[in-house]
Amino acid sequence: MAKTICIANQKGGVGKTTTSVNLSAALATAGKSVLLIDMDPQGNASSGLGLKRHEFQESNIYHVLIGEKSLGEVLADTQLPNLKIATANPDLVGAEIELVDMPEREYRLKSAIKPFAHEFDYIIIDCPPSLGLLTLNALTSAESFLVPLQCEYYALEGLSQLLNTAGLVKKNLNPTLHIEGIVLTMFDTRNNLSHQVVQEIRTHFGEKVFNAIIPRNVRLSEAPSHGQSIIQYDPRSIGSIKYQELATELVERDLRAAQSANAEMASEDLNA
Q1: Parallel, antiparallel, or unpaired for β 83-86 and 75-77?
Q2: How many structural domains does the chain have?
């Protein structure tokens, strides 16, 4: 059964798509079967994996949301054997409007994903930098959400709004939704402010903050222009190493959670 995680932060420029692409690639490289769903009309996750927008003009996630195609009909292969993608394009801007009058509008993506839940280990959803119907669909579909936060002065700006929205989704649409964690991005080792922000966020959120911190890295910023994840473009770069560490940390967390759940079930059986 796939674990579905949406990567969300309505504040732009925080490394959201970079994290979606490179976490997906790192998980795939580690042998996990991964589906990346690009829900951002800008389509940067799609182009960042080398997919040309015009090739999927009539077959992308927009057509799934409005009911013209099934998810299986729009899945595309990437250069990584274990990674598939449902691409996006600017038509998704229109989907925000079209979805308003559709039945079960917040559940469109969840319904589309459900038949494929057993085909992947992870489904990663790259959300747009907004809290509209596209992000609501992602949060309603997901088991959890991961928040990239940049190591800069305004890092926490808007986070409370995202957490409030997620709380409403949990209350009204998706009772199992929870925060997967926070990944710190754009860390500059030479900048005292970066270190202060890391300390502040760890104080606020404790164990929810992943140990892997994504640094500012030239190779990381170059990779999308080559249509590759950093794991493909420069596997030995610090950006690649850190995203692989993030993937390992995520998998290990999930393994511990599964072991804990199994132990709890066994204990309940013994006491029954």
Answers
A1: antiparallel
A2: 1
